[in-house]
Amino acid sequence: MTLIGVVILYLLLGALAGTMAGLFGIGGGLVIVPVLIFSFGFMGISPDIAAHLAIGTSLATIVFTSISSIRTHHEHRAVRWDLFRPLAAGIVLGAILGAWTTSLISGPVLESIIGVFAILVGLKMILEVNPKPGRDVPGSQGLCVAGGVIGWVSAIFGIGGGTLTVPYLTWCNVKMQQAVGTSAALGLPIAVAGATANVWTGWQHPDLPELSLGFIYLPALIGIVVTSVLFARVGARLAHRLDGKLLKRIFAVVLIIVGLRFLLS
């Protein structure tokens, strides 16, 4: 595949990820990571690092896309900055630890773990399993610990953390709009810490393709960022026009199929 063909592929992937994020309210990482792993396979990149490269690249794209999201939510006063600060402190440490944990796992095993995660998220969407408000927001220490767990898991799967942060905050009696807005803001420290750690852990790895910065593949990063921000708005508009529940179930089935593909390959 030529470099131009690769860039076009990633422009399309960014458009798809942005649309899905805007349509379903789920971070593009759930789309980006599996597609990148498949595309790296077509490019002949070693399976030992394909998943690592996909995760690092996904986190790097979230650095850029989250900035626009934060601005929008802040303008609507939907970000609980009082919760953001202690959660972010834990998230940074957790994301660094998560990137280090990922570097210790072999590529095939990591793909299987991603497959299980995709299946679980898909089942959650189909069954609409969401925690009901059941407790008050903990103190700064409790939020820091929760942030550490969220950051660790998010860095392993290359996601912005919304899949974990929104349910956690709603469980703590935070209003849904504020939970979503605060989660979007927390995607930035997750992405910055995780992407930086992936540059370090992948630095000068012998199997890296050209135009890589550690475990970040720059052509994919550029292509995805260019289109994902624009198409997130398209997805948000479609969400108000289409049958959201039906589309969400379709997307959930796709996640389950992708997850099974990783487990059975």
Number of separate structural domains: 1
The secondary structure category is mainly alpha
Specify Rg, calculated over alpha carbons: 17 Å
Q: What string, H for helix and E for strand, traces the elements in order? A: HHHHHHHHHH
User: CA-to-CA gap between the ends?
Assistant: 23 Å
Q: Strand tally, please?
A: 0
How many helices does DSSP assign?
10
Instruction: Name the average pLDDT.
Output: 86
Helix coverage percent: over 70%
The percent range for strand residues is: under 5%
Question: What does the overall shape look like?
Answer: globular
The largest sheet, given as strand count, sense and whether it forms a barrel, is:
none
| Sequence stretches where pLDDT stays below 50 over 5 or more residues | none
Describe the structure.
- This protein is mostly helical.
- It has ten helices and no strands.
- The chain has helices spanning 3-24, 29-42, 47-75, 81-103, 107-127, 140-157, 162-171, 176-201, 218-239, 244-264.
- Helix 7 runs antiparallel to helix 8.
- It starts with a helix and ends with a helix.
- The model has no long low-confidence stretch (mean pLDDT 86).
